[in-house]
Write a structure and sequence with these properties.
- This protein is α+β, with helices and mostly antiparallel strands.
- It has one domain.
- The protein has one helix and four strands, in the order ββββα.
- The protein has a two-stranded antiparallel sheet with strand order 1-2.
- The two termini are 20 Å apart.
- The mean pLDDT is 67.
Length: 48
């Protein structure tokens, strides 16, 4: 689960694959989503 403090995005990690739930809150901007994807990519790289 990722949060920007106000909004929550559910994330599923399985092996080196990841996905993000649909974001329905207008308070989550594109920049925050890009940061979330970068975090997911890093986690996927670390996963064994």
């Amino acid at each position: 689960m990722l949060t920007n403090g106000d909004d929550i995005v559910l994330v599923k990690l399985e092996g080196k694959q990841y996905g993000m739930s649909q974001v329905v809150s207008p308070l989550v901007n594109q920049g925050e989503l890009e940061v979330a994807w970068q975090v997911l990519r890093k986690i996927a790289e670390i996963e064994v």
